[in-house]
Amino acid sequence: MPRILHLGCGNFHRAHQAWYTDRAGGWTITGVAMRSRAVPDALNPQNGDYTLVTQDTGGTDYARITCIDRVLFAPDEAQAALDLIADPETHIVSLTITEKGYHLKGDGSLDVDAAAIAADLVGTAAPKTAIGLLAHGLSKRTTPLTVLCCDNLTDNGTRLRGAVTAFADAANMGWDAKVTFPNAMVDRITPATTDALREDVAQETSWNDAAPVATEAFSEWVIEDSFAGPRPDWHRVGVQIVDDVAPFEKRKLRMLNGAHSAMAYGGILRGHTYVHQAVDDPVLRDLAIGVMAEAATTLPDGMDPDSYADSLLTRWENTALDHALRQIAMDGSQKLPMRLVATTQELDGHAPASTQGIAAWIAFAKSETEAGRALDDPAAGTIAAACESEDPIGGLCAVLGVTPALFGGPEALTLSWE
Length: 418
Ligand code: CS2
Known about the structure:
Elements: E1 3-7, H1 11-15, H2 17-24, E2 28-33, H3 38-43, E3 50-56, E4 59-65, E5 68-73, H4 74-86, E6 90-95, H5 115-122, H6 130-139, E7 145-149, H7 156-170, E8 179-180, E9 184-187, H8 195-205, E10 213-215, E11 220-224, E12 240-242, H9 246-269, H10 275-278, H11 282-296, H12 305-316, H13 325-329, H14 332-346, H15 352-370, H16 380-388, H17 392-399
Parallel strand pairs: 1-2, 1-6, 2-5, 3-10, 6-7, 7-8, 11-12
Antiparallel strand pairs: 3-4, 9-11
This protein binds D-mannonic acid.
D-mannonic acid (CS2) is lined by residues 152, 187-189, 257, 260, 327-328, 335.
C-alpha cells in the first residue's frame, strides 16, 4: 500500500489528516513522534488504531480510525525514519510539529544557530529535528516526493522548503529527486486528550482506548496543487486542491488563530478556562470580533470574511468541546508574529483590537512571571528576563521582532479593560 510518513503524530494530525486519509482509503500512515514516547507507547499496542470523538452541539460521534500502522520514536529510530523518507513506497512526508518545530527566524528563514539545528548540522547519525531528518532523508531519495507541511505557518510549504534547503546547503548536502513542498491551510479545533475523554470512550465503545482524540465537527484542508506524485483521494472527502492557498491561509491565521490567541491571553487574565467561556464574555467577544474585522481588511476580495467570522463565533461557542485557553496560550513568541503582528504591520499600526491582543499577551507574560510560573514557550527565558527588566514592554516587543512604536507607543500596549 502507498505510504505517508507523518512527522509529529499528535492529536491534531489524528483529528485532521489521518481522518481524511482514513475516509479516502487505500493508504497507510506511518507516524514519527519527534520528542515524546507518549504517542508510540499508547498507539503501537493498539496497532495504531484510535477513536476520534466528534463533540459538537449536534451530538457526539465515535469513529475508529485505522489508517496508521505504527508510530516510530525518532530519538531511538531515526534510521528507520530516514529509510522511510527514502523509500519509493513513501509518496508523501507530511508534518505537524508546531510552529517552534521549524526553528525559523522572524523573517521565516531557518535559524541555523538554534541549538537543535546546530547540533544536527554537526552530528550526522541521528538527526533530532524534523528539518535535519528531511534533509538527510531527501539526500538518499531517488523518486519524486511530496513534502506537505500541515502547521499554521505563513507560506508553510515555501518556508519549509527554504528551511530544508538552507540546512542541506549548510551541511553540504542536496537531493536529486523531484521534491515539491505544497502550501496548505489546515483547520480543525482539537483539544488535548483528558482522562475524562478516555473514560467516556471506554464507556461508550467498550474499548479501553489509550489515545482517543476529541475534535469539532468542522474541518477544512486546502492544499496547493503541486504534488510530485500520487496522493490519497482526498478531494473525494472534502479536501480542496487549489492553485493558490495564500488567501485561505491568511484568512485562517489572522482571523481564527489571531482571535484565538487574543481570547486565550485575555480569557486567562479574566479567569476563564475554555474558549466557549471566553467567547461568552462580552469584553473578549468584542476583542475577537475586532481582531477578525481588522484581519478582514487585509484579505483579498472574494473571501467572504463576514460569514467566515460568523461561523468562527459559532465554532467557538461549542460547549460540547472543552478547548483550554492555556493550550492556545503556549508558544506565543512563535504564534503572535503571524497571527496579530502581521495584521498590525499591514495596517501601519492602526489595528487597535490586534494591538489589544498583543497587550493581553504582554499582561499575561507579566502576570505569569510575577506568579513565579515560567511560560510554556521556547523563548520563556527571554520573556521572563524582559518582564523583570526596567522596560518590559520594549523587551517583550523585541521578542516579537517589533518595537512599541509600531503600535503608537507603549501606552497602546496597556489593556484598556484592566
Ligand atoms: C490554536 C490552534 O492552539 C492554538 O494556537 O489557535 O491550534 C487552532 O485551534 C487550530 O489552528 C484550529 O484549526
